[in-house]
Amino acid sequence: MGLVEGKIALVTGAGSGIGRASARAFAREGAKVVVVDVVVDGGEETVTLIKADGGDAVFVRCDVSSAAEVEAAVKTAMDTYGRLDCAHNNAGIEGPMSSTVDCAEADWDRLLGINLKGEWLCMKYEIPRMLTGSGGAIVNTASVAGLVGFQGLPSYSASKFGVNGITKVAALDYASVGIRVNSVCPGVIQTPMIDRLVAANPEMEAALIAGTPMGRLGRPEEIAEAVVWLCSDRASFVTGHNMVVDGAFTAQ
Length: 252
What we know:
With 252 residues, this protein is an alpha/beta fold.
């Protein structure tokens, strides 16, 4: 029996990287999955992969910075499967690198709108649905950049520190009514986001690997395993936790 057998899980940013790995892991562990992404091709491909493995999934296009679209995505989960048990709020962008002073206001607003406001909006619409059932579990994707500063990423770091903070607040708000809220803080993971950063700064990859004591980049599947565990009954007393999965990056 899988870790989340019979549960309904919603995953944002599920068209690639950590989100895709998470959606597939939920399905493998017995959940039916609502695959959410703003990129249609990627989201539909994730559904195809899940179904090829014998799982059950549907795709919903959604821009998580839009309240109406988030509400509609959560409604689709309810209309399709009748309830919502688990959510991995993972959609996010990296934005351009810059100093604090040189960070453009438009870039700041867009990144915070997706990375922080988007995760708040997801919880805003997920939690009431979970309250109509028997509770639930939510994992927000933060980052080690939400625990320590990263030079050149002022808006990204601000958004991820914010995710870790709102995770703790939501955990306190709903601990007594059967909803657990945690975040996962990945280190440097081999995803399209990192690929884009390295393409713009080719010397960065070697520096990121050198800065990780395990001597390699993490894999999306390694984050997905933590997410599914946090949403499972095996983590039944874990809430308000910012779980670090980073190859000892922040232990230095």
